[in-house]
Specification:
Helix content is 25%, strand content 25%. By secondary structure, it is an alpha/beta fold. It folds into 2 domains: 2-118 and 300-329, Alpha-Beta Complex (Quinone Oxidoreductase, Chain A, domain 1), CATH 3.90.180; 125-275, NAD(P)-binding Rossmann-like Domain (Rossmann fold, 3-Layer(aba) Sandwich). Strands 3, 4, 5, 6, 7, 14 and 15 form a 7-stranded mixed β-sheet that branches. A 6-stranded parallel β-sheet has the order 10-9-8-11-12-13, sandwiched between helices. A two-stranded antiparallel sheet has the order 1-2. Strand 14, helix 9 (310-318) and strand 15 form a beta-alpha-beta unit. It binds NADPH dihydro-nicotinamide-adenine-dinucleotide phosphate. NADPH dihydro-nicotinamide-adenine-dinucleotide phosphate binds at residues 44-46, 126, 129, 150, 152-156, 175-177, 180, 219-220, 241-242, 244-245, 272-274, 317-318, 320, 322. Pfam families: ADH_N_2, ADH_zinc_N.
């Protein structure tokens, strides 16, 4: 089987020369383990942070070792009770074609309920991030005006729609192309959206929300966060989920320069880690699954075919080549 290794730590934007696709023998499962043939791999922005050798909330990737990440696959050999050949599982050993997974690290998923790739997106980690971030961290209330950045991505596209479903009076999104902006309004039902590349974020946000915003869901940081602080109303809340604008930066960002506004407006800015909210999983799957079945929630995936293109998929994600969740599908 083939697997992707990190061979050199990137400085700034990663380039293909710091990675290698290597062939390894397909291992046999030991007691309590299953051998999984991966069908869909996840590439996510947080993986950029794991390429740096710094202490963070997830350990760094090791050089010349397989990278890991979310994956869905089919069990092809089992030495574990409760998991049989043919079962589909979600697990954490992505970036490779075959994985030996401990049964307790594999969650059975049902392809009859949703397409398997959905367990990496709308019904998986990004979906729970959007759900928990809005309900718990931002404390969304009926009538709120909500702004979300990275709005056409896996997390952002769900944030906007869940906000509406939870009674937001107005939802505004920003994204990096006119086509994505159109999708936000026409497909996801955002009230208004703008392309952050077409003009200053602060001006575009003010035009979209002349009376201010109550909630900001941050996926981007930098000038987006500064603009949101400027537009947040008194007692406004911000769920700080990601700051993708600076993941490849070699210098610390200048913005937000207006942080002192937090005082007068009594703003609450709170960081969000999805893993603190796994206790919401059941409620999340029930509610989001229901919205999907009722056609009230829409999602997109951008699928890249083939393990050999997994790195390009990851690099493309950082450049905004995805609409919705970026997935690597392994055709066999
Ligand atoms: P997305 O599907 O949103 O993909 C990333 C998107 O970021 C790209 O499509 C691109 O869209 C946008 N982007 C890239 N560079 C910039 C930039 N300089 N300025 C503005 N937008 C940019 O990824 P996810 O939905 O998986 O993740 C979204 C955010 O949520 C990330 O910041 C991620 O780190 C964070 N996250 C945090 C979690 C947590 O537990 N805290 C869990 C999951 C995700 P465009 O074309 O619009 O530029």
């Amino acid at each position: 089987g083939r697997e992707w290794h990190l061979t050199a730590r990137p400085k700034g934007w990663p380039t293909p020369d710091g990675f290698a696709l290597r062939e390894t023998e397909i291992p046999a499962p030991g007691p309590g383990e299953v051998l999984v043939r991966n069908l869909h791999l996840s590439v996510d922005p947080y993986m950029r942070g794991r390429m740096n050798d710094v202490k963070s909330y997830v350990p760094p990737f090791q050089l010349d070792q397989p990278m890991d990440g979310g994956a869905v696959g089919v069990v092809i050999a089992s030495e574990a009770e409760g998991l049989a050949v043919g079962d589909h599982v979600l697990h954490g050993l992505g970036w490779r074609e075959y994985a030996v997974v401990k049964a307790e690290h594999a969650a059975r998923v049902d392809p009859g309920v949703a397409p398997l790739s959905a367990y990496l997106g709308v019904l998986g980690m990004p979906g729970l991030t959007a759900y928990a971030g809005l309900l718990r961290v931002a404390g969304i209330k009926e009538g709120d005006v909500v702004f979300v950045s990275g709005a056409a991505g896996a997390v952002g596209s769900l944030v906007g729609q869940i906000a509406k479903l939870k009674g937001a009076s107005r939802v505004i999104g920003s994204a990096g192309s006119d086509e994505k902006v159109k999708t936000l309004v026409e497909e996801y039902g955002f009230d208004s959206a703008f392309n952050y590349k077409s003009g200053p974020v602060a001006e575009q946000l003010k035009a979209a929300a002349p009376d201010g915003i109550d909630v900001y869901f941050d996926n981007v940081g930098g000038d987006h966060l500064e603009a949101a602080i400027g537009s947040l109303n008194v007692h406004g809340r911000a769920a700080i989920c990601g700051m993708i604008a600076q993941y490849n930066a070699t210098e610390p960002p200048a913005a937000p320069r207006n942080l002192a506004l937090v005082i007068g407006k009594r703003l609450r800015l709170e960081g969000l880690l999805v893993r603190d909210h796994f206790d919401l999983q059941e409620q999340f799957v029930t509610e989001v699954g229901g919205w999907l079945r009722e056609g009230k929630l829409h999602y997109r995936e951008t699928a890249v075919e083939g393990i050999e293109n997994a790195l390009d998929a990851f690099l493309g994600l950082l450049r905004g080549q995805n609409s919705g969740k970026m997935i690597v599908s392994l055709a066999h």
